[in-house]
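Hey team,

Filing this mostly as a record. A colleague (T.K.) asked me to run one chain through the structure pipeline before their review meeting, and I want the input and output archived in the tracker in case anyone asks later how it was produced. No errors, nothing strange. Just documentation.

Input sequence:
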Amino acid sequence: MHLVLSGEGNSDIGKLCYPSTRFFPAPMYYLIDKIIETKLKYSFYELTPELITFVPKSKLIDIQKKFISFPSKGKNKETALFFKNARTLAMIAREKAKELDDEDVIAILFRDSDGTVSTINGMWDKKIQSIEKGFNFENFNRGVAMMPNPKSEVWLLCALKNKYLNCSDLENRSGNDNSPNNLKDELEHFGISYEETNKINEMIKNGEIDIDKIDMPSFRYFVDALNSLL
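Output structure:
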């Protein structure tokens, strides 16, 4: 198995350290790793870090610019970028599979849903569908959308604030960082800044944040989709 990953910023899936281009994982990767560990009984990152290809968002955008025509016909302007990102990541994953002569390549595209009260206007569903269509456009059936609703802080707050109770309500929160009582500030109330990735990484690795207890539609969607490929 080989993972091809892409995130939005350094503090979600992770980042590349230059000049070595070594992948340094962040909290959202460790959620992936825990799902794999639960299924396959080993940490993918600890045992096989060389089987992870990380693609920064900026690289996806640069690749898209090389295409004279990169169709997103019929896509809402709010979701067209998700379609293009997924399509590009699928192309990279397919090339990686060809290079390795291994069809067992899984692509995971992480994006926050963001916006305001995404579940009410259905934007999370539209963005998920756009990512799925992007993968399908390239006839790549091993792609997974990893999209917290409205953003990754809610998955962590489910454990730290709600103690795994009524976590679905967190998906009705605004993803706007400028809103009163925004999610980033709320996470810091628990003594954790999202920029403190090492601390959150350890909480996931040691089970202090228990992925089996996080019961939220956006999280269950991702876990079920990844497990179906594993």
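Quick notes for T.K.: The longest strand covers residues 105-110. Residues 2-151+215-229 form one domain.
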